[in-house]
Design goal:
This protein has 4 helices and 16 strands. The chain is 16% helix and 33% strand. It starts with 8 loop residues before the first strand and ends in a 5-residue tail after the last helix. Strands 10, 11, 12, 13, 14, 15 and 16 form a 7-stranded mixed beta sheet that branches. Strands 1-4-5-2-3-6 form a 6-stranded mixed beta sheet. Strands 7-8-9 form a 3-stranded antiparallel beta sheet, with no helix packed on it.
């Protein structure tokens, strides 16, 4: 599962004294894709980072991430995806790295990409267009002209597995990159609690009412900056009625049914289904 690795210590500011390049791990992103060595899918070595000519002293481009395995981690966004032909490096989407790299490393990369995109998209104030500055001691960009503050964006989303006796409801979302069956999911709206979002999304997407909501677990999900909050719920009433703009198919799966292929084990979705899949009859 995608998670923050053990013994990781988050940092808001660069340590003093500044860590040496040899003791620094640098996550470099171009539009959400991570730069890795092609030979072993590891982060570029310090000399490879230096050869790219990226200004790692620019506080608007480079952000502290934390300490991991005794090394300082920083994240950088790059305007240019062009690389020297002999660099031995390539950009990878995080989804392409599922089950290809360690889940803990991928969890750290998911934190780094969200910080990099926050920095990239807040170079200027959204109110008055003045260049933004990092606030010391706080994960925040501040406009010195009008005072507007910009923190990293986190978009909460609910996920729910509906149970009906020994069956559970799985759906195929039209806009899902994996195009696999999964529990229902959707983003919260302004002024809405998570529980209210669960009831609204279930009614909107499949026309059912549920009750007995139970929290399962949560997971940061960097596509692009979600926090997935998963629940189970019991079926109350209604017949499946699809929102055809969102859902391609939804149906009940029981112990004797042929189950669809599971979603990636990196996702909370797979854990939620696995934990509540009925035993074989």
């Amino acid at each position: 599962m995608l998670h923050t690795p053990d013994a990781f210590l988050p940092l808001i500011d660069v340590p003093t004294p500044a860590p040496a390049a040899a003791d620094t791990l640098t996550f470099i992103f171009h539009r959400g894709r991570l730069l890795l060595r092609t030979a072993d899918l590891a982060l570029p070595a310090p000399e490879q980072v230096a050869a790219l000519g990226i200004d790692v002293s620019d506080p608007g481009r480079v952000q502290p991430v934390g300490l991991w395995q005794g090394r300082y981690c920083q994240t950088v966004w790059s305007d240019d995806e062009a690389l020297p032909a002999d660099a031995g490096l390539a950009y990878h989407s995080l989804r392409a790295l599922f089950n290809a790299v360690d889940d803990g490393f991928l969890g750290l990369a998911s934190r780094a990409v969200q910080l990099a995109e926050w920095a990239r998209t807040h170079r200027y104030c959204g109110v008055c267009a003045t260049p933004m500055r990092r606030a010391q001691g706080e994960r925040c960009f501040k406009c010195e002209a009008c005072g507007m503050l910009a923190y990293p964006r986190i978009s909460p989303a609910m996920m729910v597995l509906i149970r009906k006796g020994d069956q559970v409801l799985l759906a195929m979302h039209k806009h899902s990159p994996s195009q696999r069956f999964s529990p229902l999911a959707g983003f919260l709206e302004a002024g809405e609690s998570i529980e209210e979002a669960v009831h609204r999304e279930v009614m909107e997407e499949v026309g059912l009412r549920v009750h007995n909501l139970q929290y399962f677990m949560s997971q940061s999900w960097p596509f692009p900056h979600s926090l997935m909050i998963a629940f189970t719920a019991d079926y109350l009433d209604g017949e499946i009625r699809l929102d055809e703009n969102e859902i391609a198919e939804a149906r009940w799966f029981g112990a004797s049914d042929d189950w669809p292929e599971a979603s990636s084990s990196v996702s909370i979705s797979a854990l939620l289904v696995r934990a509540h899949r009925p035993p074989l009859a």
